[in-house]
Amino acid sequence: MVKVVKTLRHKITSHSNIFDDTLQVYRQALTFVVEVMDREFPNLDGWNIKAMTQAMEKLIHATQKNPHPKYMDFDHLFYKFPSYFRRSAIAEAYGILKSHRSRYDKWLKEKEQAEREGRRFKKKPPKLQFRHRAFPVFYKGVMFQRTGDTTAKIKVFHQKDWVWITIRFKGQDLQKRGVINWKENNPSLVKVGKKYFLHISYQKSVALNNTPLSQQKICAVDLGLNQSAVCSIMDVNGTVFARKFINQAKEKDRLYRMTNKLKKAQRQSGYIKAPRYWRRINGLQKQIVNHTAHEIVRFAQDYGADVIVFEYLDHMKMPKGFYGAKRLRFRLHYWRKQGIQQKVTEMAHCQGIRVARVNARNTSQLAFDGTGVVKRKGKKDVCQFSSGKIYHADLNATYNIGARYFLRELRKSTSEREWLSVEAKVPSLARRTQQTLASLISFHQAMCQIGA
Asked: Which residues form the signal peptide (predicted)?
């Protein structure tokens, strides 16, 4: 079972500026809590959110049993601050601080490794940010009360007091969005531009399929350089049933044009934020990610795939000689890959489809027929096998990705003695980075020979 969450956005039509004070007070309280937590808890090991909430409330909030907390300024600065907002701020501050400490520990390890190897370490340490664009959560019953399908009462900070107001918001077709019988969670108040929205999340526990390996069909996906994605439907015998190429040529042309304009503006004016350029770049990125993810999941559903298999994305390594717009496009391409995998994982789990990842090394460099390393010509989406065959590089990679998934799963269900016997007949099985579709086919042939 896996928990699936969908968030629907409802635009508030009755009010707008009245929520500004609520958002400002909540963010100020969050800043206060982050500063106190960072000062009082140098080590978060062994702490959970429940224990941290109790400890922080003793430090900042006065009660009958705790009349003199250490930081009495909190109750003076945030008079009559709702207890649920206070606990929400503590939980959010705990996540912020824990994330910062984790990133700082990772930076220290990278620095120590560079010093041991005698390399110059230029990376700056991460800094804890005390101000955040956080949005408050309105707990149902005490902060949020539904009065209809498109109306509700919420408690906000207005005219220096916490009062209830009635709001109207746009409804959503729950049947169309696929959350008709899902559990409704507490809404959060989110500001986008000058408008306010209620973000209401719905959750449901979904059982992922448990199809036996011998009956599984998979959708192997390669997120290439020229194509957004190339997919192949395969089974455990190595049979390929269908293929699909996914690309957004128009969006990519516009994206490349915008990156060139952005870098040209930065060359002329120095470092500038350029929000208009970035708004269009991010919009195109989102369009490519969403369209690619929907096409992958739809293709997998059409052919009854039980698992969607990706390459494991390692840390981004910038190639040498990449500068200016070319460097930016490489980053955008890597971020798109991450976004596509995350989006597909969320959508696939809603449909009960599993998602797996395999080692990415040599999936594109090795020919699927086992003839060795391929040669790349001028076009990066075309490769030449040592036998002289011309083939699509990304399609070749999908065959190897699918084969590596099946070989990994077959290894789990094969005894050590049988595996060593097969490995002696198929040497490429010894290293996962050398496994191809030919290795999978040879594995089945070797298993038949030894009578397994």
From this structure: none
Q: Convert the pLDDT of each residue in 256-278 to its tens digit.
A: 999 999 988 888 888 788 889 99
Q: Are 27 and 150 in a shared domain?
A: yes
Residues 282 and 353 in one domain: yes
Region 374-391: mean pLDDT is 86
Residue 174 shares a structural domain with residue 265:
no
Helix, strand, coil shares of the chain, percent, nearest 5, are 45, 20, 35
Give the start-end residues of each E strand in 60-160: 144-146, 151-158
Q: Is the pLDDT of residue 452 over 70?
A: no
Looking at the structure, tell me whether residues 22 and 135 fall in a common domain: yes
Candidates 218, 185, 169, 154; CA nearest to 23 is: 154
CB neighbours of 4 closer than 8 A, spacing ≥ 6? 203, 204, 205, 206, 346, 349, 350
Q: Report the b/e string of 75-92 with b at 16+ CB within 10 A.
A: beebeebbebbbbbbbbb
Query: Which residues constitute the domain of residue 80?
Result: 1-207
The identity of residue 321, as a single letter, is: G
For 191-224, the DSSP string reads: EETTEEEEEEEEEEEEPPP---GGG-EEEEEE--
Q: Average model confidence (pLDDT) for the chain?
A: 92
Q: Check pLDDT > 90 for residue 326.
A: no
Strand partners, 206: 2
Provide the pLDDT confidence category of residue 196 given band limits of 50, 70 and 90.
Answer: very high
Does residue 259 sit in the same domain as residue 355? yes
Q: Is the pLDDT of residue 15 over 90?
A: no
Q: Considering only CA atoms, which of 123, 125, 118, 85 is closest in space to residue 103?
A: 125
Task: Return the bridge partners of 21, or none.
Answer: none
Alpha-carbon Rg for the chain, nearest whole angstrom, is: 27
Shared domain check, 320 and 194: no
407: CATH: 3.30.420.10
